[in-house]
Amino acid sequence: MIDLVALKDFLVLCQFRSFSRASERCHVSVSGLSRRIQGLEQWLGAPLFDRRKAALELTDAGQRLQAVATEVVYALEGLRKSVRSDARDRQQRIRFCAPHIMSAVFFPDWIPRLHSDFRDAKFSVESDNLPECLAMLDEGAADYAVALFDEGGTVARRLGLSADGLRALELGRERLLPVSAPNAAGRPLYDLAQAGGRPVSFLGYADECHLGWSLRPLLDRLDLDLRQSHNASLTDGLRLMALSGLGVAWLPLSLVRADLDARRLVPAGGAAFELPLRLMLLRHEAELAAQAERLWQYLMALAEPAPVADARGAELVAG
User: Could you report the per-residue pLDDT of 93-141, keeping only the tens digit for each?
Assistant: First the structure.
């Protein structure tokens, strides 16, 4: 079998045309280098150098091997570097998947805060609907999924989440609150508390959006006549509709905080109309790559595990 080290030594000898100089560069004795070249000649079945002259000269077979060996060694060295680079990258990378809303209300603030303690880490975030994010987690295409879960477990039940092999950690709290554009007096155009049985224009989430799943039980409990004329799969789309005065929308506080402070939007109802949510980090039991696993241990040290209701109405306990 041909030896890659022998090929590399052969190319050095082609460059220096001297066994003594080439052996120094290859960090091998002259006799050791000679044996490697003889091994190549035996494998090829022909001499590689004309040793009868004062300076070594490549034979025709040597020239042909030099051309092939140059390509082979270059390709193999490139492959080795690429594989090692990929392996290092995988150990350093922390891969998140999350619904689109998290790119607006969570990651822009959270990842910069982590950076000081994870300077060697490489963060990547994939955004999709929550079922697709959990599929990425199951397939090993992501280390963590981040999402908002209602305390009643509606989303967990709909997705069939169970405690088997899945760990969860609460990162914080969020709430959906109804907001509306204000009228000239600064009151909400659509005031849920003063609706008095009158129909209210409702800006709802598209069927694939998990925030709409969480919101539905609350809306079922409220004695409101909501008329859904518009919907959107992205929360920012609903925010723009609300800003345009098209209706009332239940939006994450983090998303509309600046709008509320500037009175571009105003609350359309009190605390009874709000929905508390838990911001959860999910992973599987299997050990992750170095930096991703270090992140879990880091977060576990900062906060106690928190539960998420699973499909059986039990609790999916973190940690």
Answer: 899 999 999 988 899 889 888 888 898 888 999 999 999 999 999 999 9
Angle between the 4-16 and 30-44 helix axes, to the nearest 10 degrees? 110
Q: Which domains does the chain have, with CATH numbers?
A: 4-91 (1.10.10.10), 99-319 (3.40.190.290)
Distant-in-sequence, close-in-space partners of 258: CB < 8 Å, separation ≥ 6: none
Is the pTM value of this prediction over 0.85?
no
- Taking alpha carbons only, the member of 70, 77, 76 closest to residue 10 is 70
CA 192/CA 248 separation, integer angstroms:
9
Residue 167's closest CA among 61, 271, 32, 292? 292
d(CA 125, CA 269): 34
Residues of the chain with pLDDT under 70: 1, 54, 85-87, 89, 163-165, 303-319
CB-CB neighbours of 39 under 10 Å: 14
Of 99, 63, 314, 92, the C-alpha closest to 206 is: 99
